[in-house]
């Protein structure tokens, strides 16, 4: 009995041929992005076969991660290089091109060793020893300025400027380096970057960007409510504030008189009044709700002198709870 393992027309490569095709594929990817490295790195024009990309299917970029995401690959080793760049982008946010070029050059050296009939496992052991040696040398050369705040900030600025040198913001890297370092230092040692919110607005220049001293929620305050609040006590909520109609699914109410309908509406309004009074009784002066706030509760909040913000997006509510230390 024979089992069909491969698809129709599939080819199989073994030993030297498989190794060689993998090495060549990886080196080709390294050579592709190598020319985008450094201050004199060149842009690549990417055109997709389907015509998608920019408005006319064209993308002009020198970002290694973008180039590697855009090229179709069917070589296994080349795909590994693309995955290396994705991990580097997710973990560090920079050096996507460098890791690919480094990996490709290491493979180029490995190819020469393979030609000398050195076993692949021996070559890998050598690379592992070299990695340990390089790490030890880096740790020995490393200097910490954690105790000197001014020097520590200068080190961080240098890192930020280096990172931004290969990005679109290279012309304004000093301005953005200051912003990035200030934002990270405000986290006071926390590594939770979700606390830093990036708000994008169309129009204006890139250099108009600024770091706000507070928390920005891009929403409007309710009608006739305080526009400015000092010593705010904030309640972050996710609760329905639109109960001005019966919301029991499948419920049917038959009335024989319009006055009975008015009674139901009055009961609903009183129910909402009681809810607003309970909220106000907590001693808050700012109420941020993820759901809608209808006119009647909005008026009740205005009467109580409470600033109410409706329909705050999920991300905004989560982050607001995080920075205020409150619970939704």
UniProtKB/TrEMBL annotation:
Protein name: T-complex protein 1 subunit beta
Organism: Coemansia helicoidea
Lineage, top ranks: Eukaryota, Fungi, Fungi incertae sedis, Zoopagomycota, Kickxellomycotina
């Amino acid at each position: 009995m024979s089992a069909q393992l491969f698809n129709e027309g599939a080819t199989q490569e073994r030993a030297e041929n498989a190794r060689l095709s993998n090495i060549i594929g990886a080196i080709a990817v390294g050579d592709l992005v190598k020319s985008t490295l450094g201050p004199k790195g060149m842009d690549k024009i990417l055109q997709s076969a389907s015509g998608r990309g920019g408005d006319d299917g064209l993308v002009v970029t020198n970002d290694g991660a973008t180039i590697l995401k855009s090229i179709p690959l069917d070589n296994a080793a080349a795909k590994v290089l693309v995955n290396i760049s994705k991990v580097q982008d997710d973990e560090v946010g920079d050096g996507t091109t460098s890791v690919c070029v480094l990996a490709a050059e290491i493979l180029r050296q490995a190819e020469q060793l393979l030609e000398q009939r050195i076993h692949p496992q021996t070559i890998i052991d050598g690379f592992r020893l070299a990695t340990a040696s390089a790490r030890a040398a880096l740790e020995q050369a490393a200097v910490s300025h954690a105790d000197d705040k001014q020097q520590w900030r200068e080190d961080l600025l240098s890192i930020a400027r280096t990172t931004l040198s290969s990005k679109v913001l290279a012309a304004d890297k000093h301005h953005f380096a200051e912003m990035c370092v200030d934002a990270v230092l405000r986290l006071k040692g926390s590594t939770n970057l979700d606390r830093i919110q990036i708000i994008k607005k169309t129009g204006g220049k890139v250099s108009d960007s600024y770091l706000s001293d507070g928390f920005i929620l891009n929403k409007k305050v309710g009608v006739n409510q305080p526009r400015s609040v000092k010593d705010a006590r904030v309640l972050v909520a996710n609760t329905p504030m639109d109960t001005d109609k019966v919301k029991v699914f499948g419920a049917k109410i038959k009335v024989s008189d319009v006055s009975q309908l008015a009674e139901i509406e009055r009961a609903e309004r009183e129910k909402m009044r009681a809810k607003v009074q309970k909220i106000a009784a907590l001693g808050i002066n700012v109420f941020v709700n993820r759901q809608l706030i209808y006119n009647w509760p909005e008026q009740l909040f205005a009467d109580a002198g409470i600033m109410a913000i409706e329909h705050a997006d999920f991300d905004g509510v989560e982050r607001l709870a995080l920075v205020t230390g409150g619970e939704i």
